[in-house]
Amino acid sequence: GPAHLFRLAGKCFSFVESTYKYEFCPFHNVTQHEQTFRWNAYSGILGIWHEWEIDNNTFVGMWMREGDSCETKSRQTKVHLVCGKSNKLAYVSEPSTCVYSLTFETPLVCHPHSLLVYPTLTEALQRKWDEAEQLLYDELITDQGYKKILKEIFEEAGLLKATEENEAEKQIKKITLEFETVEKCSKEYKRLSEEIKKLRVLLGQHGIAYKGNSGE
User: Where, by residue number, does the polypeptide cross the bilayer (predicted)?
Assistant: First the structure.
């Protein structure tokens, strides 16, 4: 993300509302501590630094995910970054059960270009983005296709976490492409058969019995 925001790393900012104290440690986590003398006062993690929220080529917030469990899911928090005179946690809410929203004010985001995504990318990824812009301009891809490419760029840059589903899809795609023709499939089968023969010989040389069923 934006290098100038890294100076917030290692620092923590707190906010007290009614009986709760919230603490936001950028690039680390968000915690909540109940300020009461109850024997079972809650104290726990509302989210751990996970990824950026990106909208319109701009870093608009930080997602803290995988916090303490809450019924069937984990607590998570979105931290909105807004311009302010000093670094401070200004507002906390819980828009939906176990999903929290924090507003963090900082002078580090006051410059209009301070949260642009493009300048934080490597040259290779910037080129990839430029090419996507050109394809969109030439109407060779749709808006949806353009957004998909951008998402891939952000994932490659480590700004967004690739979901497990995406990884699974990629693997399926890879396998499907590998065997899109019978010829390719037969070739691969032949190669594996040869490899098994060699391995059987090798096992035999070392006196290791190979157990395989006749159906193989």
Answer: none
* Alpha helix positions (H), 102-141: 123-137
Nearest by Cα to 163 from 146, 151, 147, 172: 151
Average pLDDT along the chain, 216 residues, taken 10 residues at a time: 91 90 94 82 89 92 92 91 94 90 95 92 95 92 92 93 60 54 77 86 81 56
24-32's contacts with Cβ under 8 Å and 24+ in sequence apart are 24/79, 24/89, 24/102, 24/104, 26/62, 26/79, 26/104, 27/62, 29/64, 29/67, 30/64, 30/67, 30/77, 30/79, 30/100, 30/102
Tokens 């109940």 correspond to what residue?
A: 34
Reduced to 3 states, what is the DSSP secondary structure of residue 3? helix
Is residue 172 domain-resident? no
* Bridge partner residues of 75 (DSSP): none
Total domains in the chain come to 3
Which position has the token pair 């002078």?
107
Strand 99-106 to strand 88-96: parallel, antiparallel, or no bridges (unpaired)?
antiparallel
Domain-located, residue 83: yes
Q: Is the pTM of this model over 0.70?
A: no
Question: How distant is the alpha carbon of residue 150 from its chain centre?
Answer: 14
Residue 137 lies in domain: 121-161
pLDDT of residue 6: 92
Contact indicator for 115, 2 with CB cutoff of 8 Å: yes
